[in-house]
Amino acid sequence: MTPVDQTVVDSGFGNCHQAVMASLFDLDITQVPNFILYPDTQWWTVYWYFIYGLGYEWVGTGYPGQHSLADTETINGSIEAVVPSRTFPGKTHAVLIDSAGVVVHDPNPNKLWQGVNVLESGDLKSWSIIEKRNQ
Question: Which of 12, 85, 116, 135 could form a Cys-Cys staple with 91, CB 3.0–4.6 A?
Answer without folding.
Answer: 85
